[in-house]
Write a structure and sequence with these properties.
The protein is built from 4 helices and 6 strands, in the order αααββαββββ. It is α+β, with helices and mostly antiparallel strands. The protein has one domain: Nuclear Transport Factor 2, Chain: A (Roll).
Length: 161
């Protein structure tokens, strides 16, 4: 009897495997056009920082009260605060170099995407220089005209002692 039950179980398992067919290939959760847009936006962001060009960076951000940038432990909320922070940083720094790697873009819905990357930022201010290595996170929101703007920017890194 036990042998008959085992044979039946094996036969049923074989039938189930044949009818199930091969597994379907996984589709990426984030549409390729959103990935391309996120990478394009973060590259424009990097170029704006590296060239210290406010006119390049400003159009990448939402110019409203919802935009938030967290830099060096300080939160800048609203476009006027973000604008002042960017201008101040560009005035103080004589040179800024930004390198990004492992850029990942993930759709969080039809209108929102996140961009996460490993970032190394080197800046020179006067006679001092510093290198910060950490994680850059951007939250992008699609606008009615189809443009994607930064609504949240956060760079976290370990302070060097």
């Amino acid at each position: 009897m036990t042998r008959m039950v085992m044979t039946l179980v094996v036969a049923l398992a074989m039938i189930a495997c044949k009818t199930a067919g091969p597994p379907e290939p996984m589709k990426p959760a984030t549409p390729p056009e959103v990935v391309a847009m996120g990478k394009q936006t973060v590259e424009a962001w990097r170029a704006g920082w590296q060239t210290k060009t406010f006119e390049t960076l400003a159009p990448l951000y939402a110019h409203d009260l919802d935009v938030a940038v967290i830099q060096e432990g300080a939160m800048h909320l609203g476009w006027s605060s973000v604008e002042a922070m960017l201008k101040d940083r560009f005035v103080r720094a004589t040179e800024i170099r930004v390198r990004l790697k492992d850029v990942q873009v993930v759709a969080q819905g039809a209108e929102v995407a996140t961009v996460v990357a490993t970032m190394v930022r080197e800046s020179v201010e006067g006679s001092s220089s510093r290198t910060e290595t950490g994680t850059l996170s951007l939250v992008l929101r699609r606008q009615p005209d189809g443009a994607w703007l930064i609504v949240v920017e956060h760079f976290s890194y370990r302070r060097q002692s």
